[in-house]
Automatic annotation (TrEMBL):
Gene3D superfamilies: Mitochondrial carrier domain. Solcar repeats lie at residues 9-104, 115-200, 208-298. This is ADP/ATP carrier protein. It is found in: Mitochondrion inner membrane.
Length: 312
């Protein structure tokens, strides 16, 4: 009896599967996304007496309850349409380009062996950079929608038009691109941590159980988030409207955002919102790893089980 092997899944198939999984996972945890964004853009201001004013949101739960009270429960889903479009487009582009670049590499590689970890990281970083350059405008629009009050909130097209008219023209839609390009190291760290932790936590295992893949994906994403959190906060600051003490002038670089936060809140301010950021990341990454390990685990390598590229 002949054993039939599974048909090879091309770049479009992998891109569609990756984007679909990312959209579903992000939709489930979207309130955490808006909460972490609100926490990351608020800045403690010095009052006339020299003291420091309290932040509007003091914790994840405080943010959830205040947003729900001020804007209703649907306020926790403000900007969700743009966010899911952004997640879908970014992950589709990432998975497509990763699959295409990896296939091209293997075609011209002189070695029949699978790509090394360093090569996998390089291919993933290149695919992530291409994906970010193409899809960052929707991330900028989504961040604006998430940080606007209910009265000021507009649709996707109207928000994009407002950014173009009020700031740097069309280039305003690419605010935070440099930070986003640097943040391609986030999936690379996730991937590297996954590969390192797998033999340590589950020695001798090629195919992981669903809960094992979930735990491993969650842990690897947590390590990546802690490492890159200051840059994530800076990127959100670049893409949101500037705080009042900036006199209406937008930040010009992520270094400037970091300096501003440290001056007003100290170094720990660069890690604000890390609670919901980690919780969202580990849930999304855990779900994706669990699903993909089950679908592609037979390969025995992580190559088909790439981490989601979203670091929002």
């Amino acid at each position: 009896m002949t054993v039939q092997s599974k048909p090879s899944i091309g770049p479009w198939g992998k891109a569609t599967a990756g984007a679909t999984g990312a959209v579903l996972a992000n939709a489930l945890v979207y309130p955490l996304d808006i909460v972490k964004t609100r926490l990351q853009v608020q800045v403690k201001q010095k009052d006339a007496g020299g003291g420091t004013s309290a932040a509007h949101y003091t914790s994840t739960w405080d943010a959830i309850t205040k947003i729900a009270h001020e804007d209703g429960v649907h306020g926790l889903y403000a900007g969700i349409n743009g966010s899911l479009i952004g997640v879908a487009s970014t992950n589709f582009a990432y998975f497509y380009w990763y699959s295409a670049i990896r296939t091209l590499y293997q075609r011209f590689s002189r070695s029949a062996a699978p790509p090394s970890t360093l090569v996998e990281l390089s291919l993933g970083a290149l695919a992530g950079a291409v994906a970010q350059m193409v899809t960052i405008p929707i991330a900028v629009v989504t961040t604006r929608q998430q940080t606007q009050s209910k009265a000021d909130r507009k649709g996707i097209v109207a928000t994009a038009h407002e950014i173009i008219e009020s700031e740097d023209g069309v280039t305003g839609l690419w605010r935070g691109l440099k930070a986003s390009l640097v943040l391609v190291i986030n999936p690379a760290i996730t991937y590297g941590a996954y590969e390192r932790l797998k033999p340590t936590l589950f020695p001798g295992k090629t195919n992981l159980r669903a809960w094992e893949a979930f735990v491993l994906g969650a842990l690897s994403k947590t390590l990546a988030t802690i490492t890159t959190q200051p840059l994530i906060v800076a990127k959100v600051g670049l893409q949101s409207k500037p705080p009042p003490s900036r006199n209406g002038k937008p930040f010009q670089s992520f270094i400037e955002v970091m300096q501003f936060i440290v001056a007003h809140e100290g170094p720990l301010g660069l890690f604000k919102g890390i609670g919901p950021q980690i919780l969202k990341g580990l849930l999304v990454q855990g779900i994706l790893m669990m699903t993909k390990e089950r679908d592609y685990g037979q390969s025995g390598r992580f190559g088909a089980v790439k981490p989601t590229h979203s670091v929002r």
